[in-house]
């Protein structure tokens, strides 16, 4: 019997193609980083190794997190029998109480204590699990969600894979008075709404990924009013809410909504507002797969509870994380230390880039920065020539520098890259600056050579 060929589809459904992904052989930024894991940079052991800064993961606080998790295993509390049994798919009731208290205290800081009811929470496998459910339950196939660009690349799969929801980008534009400030305007939202065929919702990430920027209260009010005007849902992804290193920069949309409500103004229908957060970024716990959705939409809560079987969190993980989130003194110290480390690394990156004559979008938060390498493009600056960015990405890979290209984030301006600095260390950021300086020198030498030939 002849063996199956590579062309054999294996009897899979057409739906499988989206999960298999691109089979063209092209190595995207994420795979390129993964393939470099055997050669990771270390200032002493491997100084010529790979600088892996293409994936948004926070490793600065790993030891502090592990120490706390290990405390639970060593404590008298430990696991209960409930950890080994069936339970409510949408989360253990006592853990929901602890999550609600954490959100009240550390995310929705302007609300009265106890404002968030555990009954309005769904726990699931990270923000990914929450977004997949929202895409499946809020939208009909073929309906669309508006997302301001540039945006987190994996949003495409989060909405398309199960929900069959298409994304319509609302293009943030460079501020005319400040070439390095990307802003979201009402005009951009109107443009996206008119460009779509069947818009059902708007999604914002606050703080934003990849910009690391927090929306102002005025911008959040504008977003809420827009959703009310268009009668669409709003999904608010605040996964970086506690990774804000500029004091006073962050305000949760939920807080702004409640403030307006107290003043007798409803920004938008309460049933249409849905919030997600997880442990992945603020606690450096991307492997814990612990996320939460907060919504007051009773029918949606019922539907998510019914769908949660396939995305529920292990009871073992829930009890461990519940123990951690209930310790507000620890959370306060942890968040403060994380913010300090992020600020330190971001400052090194920003100062170094400006010293090289390169740029950076001013950030308030996050575990990354959106940097402007347009001066290294071999095409005219500000021209919409994507090939120039792709060629620069390849040149950086030759120097073992792995970044997220702006094109992956649907950035309309070629030459911007996301630098996920929290994946490595301050030493790695300094090495990145050294390699960018070398690339700039080579770029200038090439330009001089071209002038001589002419």
Describe this structure in words.
- It is a single chain.
- The chain is an alpha/beta fold.
- The protein folds into two domains: 16-63 and 332-448, Alpha-Beta Complex (Aspartate Aminotransferase, domain 1), CATH 3.90.1150; 79-327, Type I PLP-dependent aspartate aminotransferase-like (Major domain) (Aspartate Aminotransferase, domain 2, 3-Layer(aba) Sandwich), CATH 3.40.640.
- It has helices spanning 16-20, 29-35, 62-74, 93-107, 126-138, 155-160, 186-195, 217-230, 253-262, 298-307, 315-326, 328-355, 386-398, 426-453; strands spanning 51-53, 121-124, 144-149, 166-171, 173-175, 178-183, 199-205, 233-237, 273-278, 291-295, 359-360, 369-372, 401-405, 416-419.
- The strands form three sheets. The protein has a seven-stranded mixed β-sheet with strand order 2-10-9-8-7-3-4, sandwiched between helices. It has a five-stranded mixed β-sheet with strand order 1-13-14-12-11, with helices on both faces. A two-stranded antiparallel ribbon has the order 5-6.
- Helix 9 (253-262) links the parallel strand 8 (233-237) and strand 9 (273-278).
- The termini are far apart.
- 44% of the residues are buried.
What is the C-alpha radius of gyration, as a whole number of Å?
23 Å
User: DSSP helix count?
Assistant: 14
Shape: globular
- In CATH terms, what is the fold-level topology of the largest domain? Aspartate Aminotransferase, domain 2
Protein structure class: alpha/beta
Percent range for helical residues?
40-55%
CATH class group of the largest domain: Alpha Beta
Secondary-structure element order, N to C:
HHEHHEHEHEEEHEHEHEEHHHEEHEEH
Total domain units: 2
Order the strands across the largest sheet as they lie in space.
Answer: 2-10-9-8-7-3-4
The oligomerization state is: single chain
Structure summary, number of beta strands:
14
Task: Report the major sheet.
Answer: 7 strands, mixed
Average pLDDT rating: 90
Mind telling me which CATH architecture of the largest domain this is? 3-Layer(aba) Sandwich
Distance between the termini: 64 Å
Low-pLDDT runs of 5+ residues are 450-454
- Proportion of β residues? 5-15%
Q: Please, what is the CATH homologous superfamily of the largest domain?
A: Type I PLP-dependent aspartate aminotransferase-like (Major domain)
């Amino acid at each position: 019997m002849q063996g199956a060929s590579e062309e054999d589809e294996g009897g899979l459904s057409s739906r499988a193609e989206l999960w298999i992904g691109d089979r063209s052989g092209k190595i995207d930024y994420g795979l390129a980083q993964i393939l470099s894991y055997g050669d990771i940079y270390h200032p002493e052991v491997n100084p010529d190794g790979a600088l892996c800064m293409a994936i948004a993961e926070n490793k600065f606080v790993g030891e502090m997190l592990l120490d706390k998790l290990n405390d639970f295993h060593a404590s008298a509390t430990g696991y209960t029998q409930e950890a080994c049994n069936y339970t409510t798919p949408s989360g253990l009731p006592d853990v929901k109480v602890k999550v609600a208290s954490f959100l009240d205290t550390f995310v929705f800081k302007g609300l009265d204590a106890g404002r968030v009811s555990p009954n309005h929470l769904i726990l699931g496998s990270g923000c990914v699990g929450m977004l997949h459910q929202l895409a499946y339950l809020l939208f009909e196939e073929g309906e669309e969600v508006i997302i301001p660009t540039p945006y987190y690349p994996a949003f495409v799969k989060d909405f398309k894979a199960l929900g069959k929801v298409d994304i319509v980008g609302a293009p943030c534009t460079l501020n005319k008075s400040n070439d390095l400030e990307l802003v979201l305007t009402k005009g951009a939202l109107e443009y996206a709404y008119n460009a779509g065929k069947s818009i059902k919702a708007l999604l914002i990430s606050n703080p934003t990924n990849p910009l690391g920027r927090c929306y102002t209260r005025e911008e959040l009010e504008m977003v809420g009013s827009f959703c009310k005007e268009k009668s669409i849902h709003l999904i608010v992804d605040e996964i970086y809410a506690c990774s804000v290193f500029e004091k006073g920069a962050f305000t949760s949309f939920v807080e702004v909504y409640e403030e307006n409500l107290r003043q007798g103004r409803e920004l938008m229908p309460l049933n249409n507002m849905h919030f997600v957060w997880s442990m992945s970024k603020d606690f450096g716990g991307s492997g814990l797969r612990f996320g939460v959705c907060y919504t007051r939409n009773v029918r949606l809560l019922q539907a998510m509870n019914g769908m949660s079987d396939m995305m529920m969190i292990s009871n073992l993980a829930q009890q461990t994380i519940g123990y951690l989130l209930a310790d507000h003194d620890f959370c306060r110290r942890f968040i403060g230390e994380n913010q300090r480390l992020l600020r330190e690394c971001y400052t090194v990156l920003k100062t170094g880039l400006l010293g090289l004559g390169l740029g950076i979008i001013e950030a308030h938060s996050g575990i990354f920065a959106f940097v402007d390498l347009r001066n290294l493009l071999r095409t005219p600056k500000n021209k919409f020539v994507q090939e120039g960015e792709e060629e620069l990405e390849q040149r950086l890979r030759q120097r073992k520098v792995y970044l997220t290209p702006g094109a992956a984030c649907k950035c309309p301006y070629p030459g911007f890259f996301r630098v996920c600095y929290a994946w490595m260390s301050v030493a790695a950021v300094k090495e990145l600056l050294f390699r960018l300086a070398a690339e700039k020198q080579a770029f200038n030498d090439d330009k001089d050579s071209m002038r001589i030939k002419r």
